[in-house]
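Training component of the fellowship. As part of building independent skills, the fellow (R.M.) carried out the full modelling exercise for a liganded target. The chosen ligand was pterin cytosine dinucleotide. The inputs are recorded below so that the supervisory panel can assess the work.
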Amino acid sequence: MLKKILNINGLKRTVIVSPEISLADVLRKQLFLTGTKVGCGKGECGACNVILDGKVVRSCIVRMKRVPDEAEITTIEGIGSQDDLHDIQFAWMIHGAAQCGFCTPGFIVSAKALLDQNNNPTREEVRAWFQKSRNVCRCTGYIPLVDAVMEAAKLMRGEVTRKQLWLKLPEGASLVGTEAVRPSACAKVTGTWEFGADLGLTLPEDTLHIKLVQATVSHANIISIDTTDAETMPGVYRVLTYKDVKGTNRINGLAFPSNKGDGLERPILNDKKIFQFGDAIAMVLADTPTHAEDAAKKVIVEIEELPAYMSAPAAMAEDAIEIHPGTPNIYFETKVVKGEETAPLMESLPYVVEDDLYVGRQPHLPIEPDVGFAYFDEEGKLIIHSKSIALHFHALMIAEGIGLPLDKVMIVQNPTGGTFGYKFSPTIEALLAVAAMDTGKPVYLEFNMYQQITYTGKRSPFWMHVKLGADKFGKLQALETDWSCDHGPYCEFGDLVTTRGSQFIGAGYKIDNIRGEGRTVATNHGWGSAFRGFGSPQALFASEQMMDELAIKMDVDPLELRYDNALREGEVTPNGCKLDVYVIPQLLDKIRPYYAKAKENDKEKNKNSENKRYGSAISVLMYSCGLDGADSSEAWVEITKKGVTVANSWEDHGQGADMGTLTMAHETLRKAGYEPEDIKLILNDMNFTPNSGPAGGSRSNVLTGNATRVACENLLEGLKKDDGTYRDYDEQIAEGKPTRYDGKWTAPCTACDVETGQGDPFPVYMYGVLLAEVEVDMTTGKTHVDKLTCISDVGTIINKLLVDGQILGGLVQGIGLALYEDFEDLKKHTTLTGCGIPQIKDVTDDITLLYLETPRPLGPYGAAGAGEMPLSSPHSAIISAIYNACGVRITHLPAYPDKVLAGIKKLNK
Ligand code: MCN
Ligand code: FES
Ligand code: FES
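Fellow's submitted model of the complex:
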């Protein structure tokens, strides 16, 4: 042990520490300075950055033996507080730079060190500084962070005042469309927004720490699990296997009726088989995480290894055994049957293109790894705190498996450091439940980044073959599609994501005749979970690429081909239904001048360059808001002495559910004179909040926005006096009238028929067009995205900071999907860097956002959603821009340099 005296945030603190422990652990766990976050724990993300003797250090990799005695340390707590914000924190808020907020303290600490030595940096200097400090953000696309530093520098130089920058709305004004700052921003920028691992430190002393025994192979029969040695290890309380699970030990995957599986493929703790690398086979519960981890190594698992099918084609091979005995590996099929038979048509058409395309297993890479805890409350209810973005779904999906009645399972969402959809699936909820039920004690489980990456779900890869034909006038006449969705071993939402192939291959265009067939395939690679865009990045990559190939074949401009074929008033989607609004031609009109200029620039730059080639291209972005069919959401509101309380389960990944709810409620309630500060929010705690459905499918702004609006309208109706004014709380009570009102909204939609793909599944859609400009290094094959210009139509913009943030973050994940990100190699793709997370150097600082605001008939105050549209097909524009730069078309993502280089070499032969 070492005794150290440290000068932390200006205060002398004495700590007794192990020499090997990290500074981050001492700050967080011994000094409770939880503003410093731990993401990767390996020096890759900068979430843990602090200033040590004037230098930014990643505190997760600084061992205490290396920290000098009397070191001066500044953490986020020393930079400013909620009552006394630093200029950087203030600037971070007004630029919407904290989405989930998990990376925020680390960035602000780095920025402070930079501005202390240079209060007038250039944007390039700021970017270089964040790169050097290894700060990584998965939500924002980085631009708002650089904007915030530049603004903070101006404030610090006295060139502008906070008063000038802070949005002050006149009394009674609407919040809609403004840059009002989200309610959680102040806590996020001060490091006081308490994430799961922070709350974990507040649990009672007898809390048990869980560590998992996980599979190290991808497919095997389990012969035996021997826990004897582990049980005798120091500090161990219990070692649990499937035998200790009181229920069916299965997660309910909510399978479609036509799914050939029963939806109960996924064990909570594996019993007979291992289905994927990382499967949880046993849980050790001990007094400390280290004791649990040491004991987990002593559990002996005897297995018989089986052939592992690591892709859809491998699992579909004739000789492949059934991964889930009794269920075929192809367990769900769906078709598209629209218009005439396409085969004879294709024969007769002058222009036909076809290709094979692949979009892979993109990893979500939130900076906060999965974390949660559980305990029983005084009424005997099991309370599970996690990163769930589907509270009521998840309770339903685990109740039988753990063996508790549904009404005894309550899930609460912790402040969450990003999910990007992986938390649409339950992850550790059932494990926590099993542990709490077995022991009756509070239990805590946190993943490290390796477990986060190897255990949690991934984007489901699509293997697609697409054929598209046009007549001599360039009008699309026929589309044939075939797609296989590799959904990993667990079926949950696999059928649903497969239907996206029928809904979005060819979306946005008038194509009267379509035949298609898609299937969901069980494999032994990482299980498929929702990922932002949910099937549309796969589907649209195929059809957008085919549009570009067709344009080349026809020798027409790809923008004009899109323009000529874009859906117009009254025309129908591949599902045979009308759109909510018809705006794609207008969006193309708006982008046309930018596109023309980009092409000119490419020409100029290519004239003077040999080793670098430049190209640009566009893609149409489009996605739906809602779960298929009659999706619905609920909210309630209550008038109180202090104002109005609004409650819903609009789960927050980081996208801004708090601001969405506040704006929807305020827009309705301001008729009765309520101001934003009169509105209190209760969000995401099943003990209090109703079933609003998951925050997936970009549905919440529309569905929960509408439910919140309806609840507020019902309240106003209940408060209304005969003279048209509204009763206050006292008057309402005095008249014996109710104070609480519910609101529910259901989409007037019908799910698609799996035999034909025909239906009217969604109430609202989001649209965009992206122009990508890239540079390809002809000697290395390396692509850099130089510039993006995106025009979006997400209906009425509810909050400008939120929508800008959604679009920037989504587009940058699209750069990742196109160029860098994958989870394929179980040895290499196990860290943030290994998986290819875009760092600030990988992302252009030149992104222009343009908007068209077409009010949606069914959207609350005309709004659509925004979350997923920007990741629906940006990668297609980037891939086609690479083609336009150097003649190489990458149809199997990502476009790693070696693939591009191989293409260049082939062309040069
Ligand atoms: N919004 C708005 N005006 C509009 C449309 C949307 O102000 N016209 C705002 C909404 O109020 C909301 C946000 O934009 O705060 C996104 O709205 P919506 O598209 O309805 O999406 P949800 O609230 O249902 O959020 C889920 C969506 C999905 S599916 C994923 S995945 C996702 C995402 O949003 N994951 C995210 N955005 C994310 N953002 C962050 N930072 N982290 C994630 O993990
Ligand atoms: Fe320390 Fe990632 S760099 S947590
Ligand atoms: Fe940066 Fe979420 S705001 S990771």
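The panel noted the following from the submitted structure. Residues 581 and 856 are 7 Å apart (CA to CA). The chain has four domains: 1-193, 208-308+369-450, 586-624+765-909, 632-746.
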